């Protein structure tokens, strides 16, 4: 097998999982570096948003790590799908609270409402990674 063919096979085998891992790692890091962007996503009835923001950021980083390693990829895909389902109420909260004059880009209606349907393909992607790893 040529080097190019081997590289292509590796990309097909690992690319989707590594791309999802990169997306979750970036989002998880952003939660920890810029928590203010995510505070408005936390429903008020859950109390102080900071532990939720940090916790979800750490969970995203953990999922990213699990997706990056072939031996934990199946569990990482399932955990990622569960996490994406779990944060959906926060995305709904953000959309309901969105305002055209919001300081944060994430708080503007077009972005906040536009995020909601994106959860479905993200969840499907995570489940696909889990299935392919099995």
UniProtKB/TrEMBL annotation:
It is a multi-pass membrane protein. Keywords: Membrane, Transmembrane, Transmembrane helix. The keyword Transmembrane applies. Pfam families: DoxX_2. It is found in: Membrane. Its main location: membrane. InterPro entries: DoxX. PANTHER family: DOXX FAMILY MEMBRANE PROTEIN (PTHR36974:SF1), MEMBRANE PROTEIN-RELATED (PTHR36974). This is DoxX family membrane protein. It comes from Cellulomonas edaphi.
